[in-house]
Amino acid sequence: YDLLLDTPDQLDAAGFAVAPLVEDVADRQPNLHRKTQFLAMRPVMDAIAAGMDVETIRSGLVQAARGSMMADSVRGTLATRAAAAYPMVSRVDLLSPALRDRAVFFSLVGSMNKDARSLMLDGETLHVVAGPWAMVHYPDFALLLGRVTWVERQAQIDALIPPYGAVERRLSRLLRDVL
Question: Whole-model pTM?
Answer without folding.
Answer: 0.61
